[in-house]
Amino acid sequence: MSISKQIENAVKNSSMIRKMFEEGERRKKEFGADKVFDFSIGNPIFEPPPEVRQSLLKILQSDEKGTHRYMPNAGYPATRDFIASQLKDETSLSFTQTDIVMTVGAGGALNVIFRTLLDPGDEVVVFKPFFMEYNAYVANHNGKITPVPTTSDFLFDFAALENAFNKNVKAVLVNSPNNPTGVIYPAEDLTRLADLLEKKSVEYGHAITLISDEPYKNISYTDSVPSIFNHYKNSVVCTSYSKDLAIPGERIGYIAISPNHIDRNLVGEGAVIALRILGFVNAPAIWQRILPMVGKAHVDLEPYRKNRDLLLNHLTKIGFKCVKPEGAFYLFPKCPTDDDIQFVETARDMNLLLVPGSGFSAPGFFRIAYCFDTDMIKRSLPVFSELARKYKMIE
Fold it and tell me: Mind listing the pLDDT tens digit for each residue in 213-228?
């Protein structure tokens, strides 16, 4: 075999989301785009806010020299100052540009921070269900994922969490609002989590870092999402602008290290080294320049809210059980059968493209992305009803 065993295994178990997305493209060509209902991938159809286009045009039309040259590996100082200022306003903590490392999206940020923190055999605790790529990201850097079950509402199960701890745990990874459930972890749960991490850090004699993956933080239908920085000192945020500016293809994000982290400077310096040795070198120059120009702009949340309510109300009406998401743009209903793979295949045969919960370490569920045209969602509702009839959920 000419490729590595790790990549060979990855090929065999490649992303269910991507497979379903590619199946959707094939079916659209075969049956017509209006007859295929593709809810597989969180790839928003909504365009970025006007500030993004205006800023991009301004940069492209500028005669300023050096726009496309290298900058410090961590990113443009002005961009990092802008982000640090936003975080300072949000948390009242003393962030500076040295706490910010610009990255190639949130996926790049997570790989960089895992490369920075993990030694071979170190463990990263995650909460089920979780984004399937976490497995690969941690394995990339010789670490091990330690999955922990959650409650029926997809919140922290602290008894299960405490049982999962051992001296090899180096980090805990949270994702709020969560992909695939849309759940937002409440402040009181983060406080309790922080207390446990403090206790375990003392017990094992090393700091356990809390990492928060936050690309959906500004896609929230309730009050603002609680910040881990205000709950636990040894915290790091990995995030991107993919979702709140609707620019997932531009791959721009950052790492933010808490000013209170016990190894604040060392983690920042290590992340810059990891950024380089992983081959990212730096985040895209133009998009770094755009961020301060865009300011606090973000996508309109009303289309997402409308789509959520439309789908959720219909699905619950026809018998599906689903925790109401408070953020992101996913539903994660329970299947009417234990075999979520078979359920998704049945839906696929009806040109309804969903993702099985097994891909998120949650068999028996399925994920629906609803960041799409509302008319498509309306046209899909009778198909969901027909699917429910196949499983005798309705007559």
Answer: 999 999 999 878 999 9
CB 212 within 8 A of CB 230: no
CATH 3.60.20.10 given to domain 51-294: no
Topology of domain 5-48+300-390, CATH: Aspartate Aminotransferase, domain 1 (3.90.1150)
CA-nearest of 354, 352, 360, 357 to 379 is 352
The token duo for 2 is: 């000419």
Judge residue 159's burial from the number of C-beta atoms within 10 Å of its C-beta, 0-12 exposed, 13-18 middle, 19 or more buried.
exposed
Question: Domain extents for the chain?
Answer: 5-48+300-390, 51-294
| Distance of alpha carbon 367 from alpha carbon 380, whole angstroms | 15
Q: Report the predicted TM-score, pTM, of the whole model to 2 decimal places.
A: 0.95
Taking Cα atoms as reference points, which of 215, 218, 258 lies closest to residue 236?
258
User: For the chain, which ranges sit under pLDDT 50?
Assistant: none
**Contact partners, residue 146, CB within 8 Å, separation at least 6:** 123, 124, 125, 126, 164, 169
Tokens 């922990």 belong to 148
Model pLDDT for residues 135-159, shown as the tens digit of each residue: 999 999 999 999 999 999 999 999 9
In 3D, which of 374, 378, 363 has the Cα closest to residue 132? 363
